[in-house]
Amino acid sequence: MPFYRSHILVCVDPQCLAKGAHELTDALQDELVAQGLIDEIQILETSRIGGCARGPEIMVYPEGTHYVGLTADDAPYLVEEHFLKGRVVEKFVEKEKPVADEELGPPRPKETRIILRNCGAIDPMNIEDYLAADGYQALGKVISEMTAEQVIDEVTRSGLRGRGGAGFPAGRKWALSRQAPGDLKYMVCNADEGDPGAFMNRRVLEGDPHSVIEGMIIGAYAIGASYGYIYCRAEYPLAVQTLNLAIIQAREFGFLGKDILGAGFNFDLEVRVGAGAFVCGEETALMASIMGRRGEPRPRPPFPSVKGVWGKPSNNNNVETYANVPQIILNGADWYASMGTPRSKGTKTFAVGGNVAKPGLIEVPMGITLREIIFEVAGGIKDGRKFKAVQTGGPMGGCLAEAHLDLPLDYEALTQAGSMMGSGGLVVMDETSCMVDIARFFMDFTQAESCGKCAPCRVGTRRILELLEKICDGKGQRGDLERLEDLCHEVAKNSLCGLGQGAPNPVLSTLKLFRDEYEAHVYEKRCPAKVCRSLIRYEIEAPACTGCMVCARNCPVEAISGERRQAHHIDIEKCIRCGICMQVCNFNAVSVLT
Amino acid sequence: MANPIREIPANDPLNSAELKSLLDRIIEENRERPGAVMLVLNETQAKIGHVSPAMQAYIARKLQVPLGQVHGVVTFYSFFKTKPRGKHTVKFCLGTACYVAGTPQLVEKAKQMLGIELGDTTLDGQITLEECRCVGACSQAPVVVVDDEAHGKLRPNKFPQVLKKIQG
Question: In angstroms, what separates the C-alpha of B8 from chain A's closest C-alpha?
Fold first, then answer.
């Protein structure tokens, strides 16, 4: 590899791209060539440096100078000053304290990074960067030293379990796929990360695509597959682009294609893009979609390991599962199994969101408690409010309350508590969130995303949603809560796939833990968290109101009246309880009552 | 639905020589690949912007699959549109974090300013309002995606500035 005295990282996240990051890269490249510096200075494109609001931006290493607000026209001046004369160009230096990447900052206390170790540290668009970080060494080891059985045995002993949420042991699945009769087998990677609030897989695909590809090649070697599909959701265009580039580079380097590393083993890979259907995260639906059909699940068995894409044995794992594999091969099963609880090993990435002080992407060892995640890793609850609940596992998961905070992170422990590990979305809610409204929100989501194939899910989710809407609307009646509970159990028991089976979870778990809130809605027509529109009203407190007119100007229905510098008044009849007045008021003069 | 094969509306992309040859090229490039229906539809949606009933019939005939299969796939996935969209699209993220952080208020504001409902396009064909599921930028909640640009931490009083940019 050539030696460079300096590196320029150009941010190519969507915000900077829109402002011309590519043009800037080209201009810098041209200028470096013109000045004869191209052999000394390398330009890399990377995702997110942190000042995107003032982008396009670049970071120059080893100095660590952060320039923002550059355009292609500035390139000649910048190159001359900084790289020829060695002077920092003050007018472009980021003066404001750099806003750290809120999604993925430097490791926080209690984090252990395996999956995310390369994200942000290497150029995902350049395979050589991955190679320099021990990339494809595991593949070399597997092909030169290990038999397929040894690979499966190593993965089995590591205790790695499916990171898509269900937690099926990866080694066992590989063994099943290997034993399945058939000459032609497929590897499938589920990158259809649809849970609202989850974006772990996106960052891995955008930041370290080769780790996933390497994991898939190793898997293909182990089960005897010759072709693979990465099914990525259409909402992630940058991930698709990064993956496609990575696949081309891997082919050029001989890691994909015919006779990989001269060992007589053939495997190739392509990316298939979804089209916005949540249910395609379900493995049988995903495979139907790859085959160009409606993404409807089918009953299992036969499991995809036996009968999957094009009716052939297909091994389906999540992005994160595959990304773990090279590290397990390199460092050994014992190393991996040393982290976590007796039943759940290794680390798990989470996207922490909601009302926490420091939201973002984290990777923690299994066995850590939810309390540690929320209060130590994520900085506790925002604005000093009180913790109320945490939703794990996305719309098929459940809410957990204060009492569950000391549970160790473990597939079985979370399931027993009424939630699930899921793919790793973690939404934290404080006292300003209404649990009935949250349940309604998730039901609205699953109801819309139900594919309609089986009646319990298609009709059941609709009926559950109607009941919840009725309750939120203040029209709940005696007996509704019991009916809701019955219905939830029926839908969970009788639905065809994981979507319907899991859909009632948010309702059931909140009914169990926050029944008093449901009861307040039904019997007292009151929303304790002051969220449900039909049960609240807004008022302006005369002493605090300065008559600045901001609320009146922003009110969408002109329900606020009052003269300038006089206290304003909200017309309850006109008010649609959108809450905009409260958000825009600078004097905290608007209050909400229930 | 009018017979999409015999009655092709005047403004249908099939009546534009340029778009029709683009569609032909997309079909030709993908027809031999397994799972061609999705591939063709994805590319058509990306390059032409929608898949009209007439185009569905055309694709089905060219790929030699039943029209029902093409129509079934188009209506199953939310990314496929059967009608042309506005020049600009404003999408409101309704993921959990954005919902909690105040997307509903932003939607109210947008409806009030443009006088259209979610899913509709303004009469001048300029702006389409849409809701979308999580765009994966939850730490920036609430997020509104205008064309391909994401605006995070948006408050209702800042929304007019965002609209102004695309209204020119």
Answer: 26
